[in-house]
Amino acid sequence: MRARAYLSRVAEVRTPVFLDCSSGEPLLPEAREAWVLAASSGWGDPQRLHRSGRLAAQALDSARERVAAHVGARPDEVVLTGPLAPAAQAAVAGLTLGRRRVGDVVVTSSVEHSAVLGAAAAYGRHVAVGVDRLGRLDLAAWAEAVGRPGVALACLQVANHEVGTLQPYVAAADACRAAGVPLVLDVTTALGRIDTADLGGWSVLLGWAGAYGGPASVGFMVVRRGTRWRAPFPADDHQHGRWPGVVDVPAVWSAVAALDVVSTTREAVAARQRDLVDHLRREVGARVPDVDLAGDPVDRAPHLLTFSALYVDGETLTLELDRAGFAVASGSACSASSEHPSHVLAAMGALTHGNVRLGLTRTTTEAEVDRFLDVLPGVVAEIRGRLGAA
Fold it and tell me: pLDDT at residue 96 above 80?
């Protein structure tokens, strides 16, 4: 009877609902239009003196100005990069190289993106500072870690990419400043979702356009003037030797168009998403037995929710929800395989088995959330029934 009810609900769901924005927001219509416009007029090499080259150069200058305004920086501090992983590697490697006389210790939280953790281990002696059950940094341990001799740099997220918990980034930056340690601040999950005009005393800032509805090929590395960052790769004459190769001007123009849109509508969208996630937190816990809800319920990014269901395999649950018309994620947000356990949940001491991660889009509706809540209990019960755990 339970299985028949579950199958009938699955049959009712016909339109797929995308709830996986922890891995990237769908490209905004405004970003697509901006790409087409730039590709038709400003596609040239910005180092050339012909018309298409001058238009491209003007577009890049405008893009840097707009990014700088969104993050409280100067236009000449903005470096246009590829996705987050190579930008994070360059940020860590460049600071380690620039501060090699100081030391090679790289301090991070234990819940950073895997690209940051990998770079920290590859280019220095990595020290990971723990978090509490909500995923929030142990600030006292952080201050102690960055205050030790030999620290080249520290890395911290503004908001966690899996559970949404906001970090005490201003206080963490103050501790770094007191210790004379540059801070790499990953603003990816927060861009377009919280106010990023004043993020404290960071030295290098990382962002990725794919997270807020821009092209996945575009990222930003903003290096404060006076920061001892050195290019860790062979330099050329592009972007003053800070990032190699010709810039993809249409993609960059599209990325800043998306950033303008999400920043202009940030408060209204965030309020709606926060209400929907609050509704999900209440109802998932009420409708599905033996569920662990992760992350801070209040001090968080507005669009993310992760929960774990006991006695359920995360990959199976993800596939069954996909069959039911809902695209969700499981496992580590920065692993190519959904079977890879979440290092974020493990660091928090939370369940890593049977987890589901929801990332609401800007257009996710209350009706779509209610459909998900109607289907979820039956999906979980059916999987548990197969295992005799219901």
Answer: yes
Residue 207 token pair: 């962002």
For the chain, domains (ranges, CATH) are 2-19+266-387 (3.90.1150.10), 29-264 (3.40.640.10)
Q: Report the distance separating Cα 33 and Cα 378, nearest Å.
A: 41
Place of tokens 């359920």: 312
For the chain, report the end-to-end CA distance as a whole number of angstroms: 14
* Prediction pTM value: 0.90
Those residues with Cβ within 8 angstroms of residue 365's Cβ, 6 or more apart along the chain or in another chain: none
Q: Residue 332 — pLDDT band, cuts 50, 70, 90?
A: low
Letter string b/e over residues 199-220, b meaning 16 or more CB atoms within 10 A of that residue's CB: bbbbbbbbbbbbbbbbbbbbbb
Place of tokens 């690209």: 115
Mean pLDDT of the chain: 90
Contact yes or no for 129/141 (Cβ under 8 A): yes
CB atoms within 10 A of CB 323: 11
Q: Can you read off the two tokens belonging to residue 375?
A: 């289907």
Query: Which residues is 359 bridged to in the sheet?
Result: 20, 304
pLDDT digits over 204-229, tens only? 999 999 999 999 999 999 999 999 99
Structure tokens at 156: 């911290």
Select the more confidently predicted residue: 198 or 112: 112
- DSSP code at position 66: H
